[in-house]
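dumping this here before i forget
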Amino acid sequence: MALSIPEAELVESFIRASGPGGQNVNKVSSAVQLRFDARASPSLPDDVAVRLMRLAGSRLTRDGVIVITADRFRTQERNRADARERLAALLTAAEVRPVKRRPTKPSKGSQERRLAGKAVRSGVKAGRGKVSSGD
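structure:
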């Protein structure tokens, strides 16, 4: 299933970047702060939203807003694209439903092999005792 997030749900603000930019670094706001309200988004199914918020980690605010800051590049356009790609990667990872674990039992043969190995090891350790004089 392909999720699509409408533009209206994304809020972008531009801030000054600390990274590359030459003389422009103190004048131009080239870094992008992308905000997406995962908790209130109508375009996300509930289970995907829960997984997305868990995956977001420290990028998630208390209000359920995911904040992605992109300042790797010198231009605003490339930082915008980078922030959107990172949000898309998070959404793609959140879409995947975890596989439920089915409990299994060890086979009879594996249990017997385990116990046989323990018996051998026990014998080795028992042979390490003090040697008594045979007088």
